[in-house]
Design goal:
homodimer; 373 residues; alpha/beta; Aspartate Aminotransferase, domain 1; seven-stranded mixed β-sheet; three-stranded antiparallel β-sheet
């Protein structure tokens, strides 16, 4: 059964592209190459991680380490359960209300962008979703200050989307909920900077942006916040079941979990979330400074809530859009198209995007502007 | 950004193990090595498949080809939708009743093993699950003939689990439902042999056994069978939404889908499901002949419903179990432990298990028996 691979094909791994896509997103090159090396024969076991049994001792070690690393990186106290689940954040839009409403019939939602609105709309299947604050009228370019919010005390919780990937709007402050349980969708910014977990009842995040590949979702939930789910709730949507089963209620997405474990190790090796935050802020600053000093590019988001993760921008002269995209692609920048709902462009700067990639993009954009002048 | 990998580490890919695990299961070596070679730089794109956007033209080509291959391999008519979803078969235990019940309040379930029972129990959250036939009393070692079944005509459908991985019991005939819509969990035997799709209203199958890795679930549903889901159904559990979105209602498990696409190509290259069936039957015959002629090993399943995919067996002298497992592991056979609920042993012989692997296992078992005599 011993086989060797075609070495010539393997060696040609030059990854000549910076992937600015909003997710699935760029992975650190070292992680991709480690995954490649280990793929056919996981640590001498003779089998691939792709074939590994989810109840094996080897996998148990991997997921134990992943949970430990996550708890350490995010300072997650013991009264919070950590789950790794199927389904993406979209399934959490339903699981959050199903598991937190209990006998209450409403919840509060801060509507600061496309994903907040999606979460809110899904919640309406299970309760009345009260709009605590609505940035829709501004075109999702601002987060109104908390004095203007209206949080209904009868609601079971207050939900907010920490970072909006399409609008490029991010909370750089934590809502003061005055005792109202706080629920956060952290899909697009988890582990990009420190967050006070203890101020939250529930945090969820799909992993395909800062924490690996698509197909896995992280849930961090304070155990005493969990309510009984309605009797007609599918078992797979009941956090209690997943807590009891330690996230192996059914066959989990083994490989996505493994990649997340590797990413957690990588973030630790980079110096943890504080180091990631410093780097992510520098990366974002490079682009926002360029946009603000340019006559060609424009970003419409209020400065106090600009995203470190997703920087949307438009060209003042829309006729240049196609040429910009073509030249960017030819230069080795992928994934710069804006979301199909808004057009324009977007540079996503998740943890794995190196500063060198952002500098290279900024250089290219300056050069393009000069050439167009 | 150009980097080369550590060649020494990559070359040492000798896969010295036959993995008889029940799932996640063995993959064909050629598929694993292809995945490895392509991993850092997908077909010259400069990015990894792990980083590929699910709405990119490249990914669209991959999933279109996957659907086309699946339709060709299983002869799926156009009036059936094909979906690739998150969540595993366990989520389908809920989605089937939610989407097929309509105004009916009951459904029929053939209880022929652990997974049938799980599906039935989940359905009870949404309706009355009528037991059409119950093999529990026999210890799940037989499938009673259809004359003994009681199918309630008021039920919305009849659900059966084509192959039971724990009991090692498989339907080698198709229930004649006399017009009652037929729902099949094919997780552990999909594409292992020809199946008449047109006799089914709904087929579902998680992919981690015959069709790749964990984290993806295949659904084949006749469009006119779909009913309106209850208003409180999470959107992610509504087949209509996934059909509308062509399985990209949210970010899908991109890599698992890609592996499934590769597996479909591999099955085609092997000659399709008829060729797989011939090979799978030969593989199963090798083991059952050994078990039936042995004084040491035993399989309790009725001959007419023995599984081609999962062959459970016990040692007559249980004191030899540990030594058997140790020697098997040392020889390079992984995953032979029986399910934790029943103990003993189990050899899973999914599509990717080569005949040489089964012959090697049979040789080992004969040798072990001789040595113990």
């Amino acid at each position: 059964m011993v086989t060797t691979v075609d070495i010539k094909a393997v060696v040609r791994t030059g990854r000549s592209t910076y992937n600015f896509g909003a997710g699935p997103a760029m992975l650190p090159e070292s992680v991709v190459l480690e995954l490649q090396q280990e793929l056919p024969n996981h640590h001498g076991s003779g089998i691939s991680i792709l074939e590994m049994n989810h109840r094996s001792a080897d996998f148990q070690r991997i997921i134990n380490q992943a949970e430990q690393d996550l708890r350490e990186l995010m300072l997650i106290p013991d009264d919070y359960a950590v789950l790794f689940l199927h389904g993406g954040a979209t399934l959490q839009f339903a699981m959050a209300p199903l598991n937190l409403l209990g006998s209450r019939s409403s919840a509060n939602y801060a509507n600061t962008g496309y994903w907040s609105a999606r979460a809110m709309r899904e919640a309406e299947r299970f309760c009345t979703a009260q709009v605590a604050v609505d940035a829709y009228e501004s075109g999702y370019t601002e987060i109104p200050p908390e004095e203007q919010w209206h949080v209904d005390k009868a609601g079971a919780y207050l939900h907010y989307t920490v970072n909006e990937t399409i609008g490029g709007v991010e909370f750089h402050w934590l809502p003061d909920t005055k005792g109202m349980p706080l629920v956060a969708d952290m899909t697009s910014m988890i582990l990009s900077r420190p967050v006070d977990v203890t101020r939250h009842a529930l945090i969820y995040a799909a992993t395909q942006k800062n924490l690996g590949i698509a197909g896995l979702t992280l849930v961090i939930v304070r155990r005493d916040m969990l309510q009984e789910v309605p009797a007609s709730t599918p078992t797979m949507l009941d956090y209690h079941e997943h807590i009891r089963a330690r996230s192996i209620f059914n066959t989990p997405p083994v490989f996505a979990w493994y990649v997340a474990a590797k990413m957690l190790g990588w973030i630790k090796a980079q110096g943890g979330v504080a180091a990631m935050a410093a780097r992510n802020q520098r990366k974002a600053d490079i682009l926002y400074e360029l946009l603000d000093s340019s006559g060609l590019y424009r970003n419409h988001v209020e400065r106090n809530c600009r995203s470190w993760m997703n920087v949307p921008f438009q060209l003042v002269d829309q006729r240049l859009e196609q040429s910009f995209l073509q030249k960017a692609t030819d230069t080795g920048f992928a994934g710069l198209s804006g979301h199909r709902s808004v057009g324009g462009f977007r540079a996503s700067l998740y943890n794995a995007m190196p500063e060198a990639g952002v500098c290279a993009l900024a250089d290219f954009m300056r050069e393009f502007e000069r050439a167009c002048a």
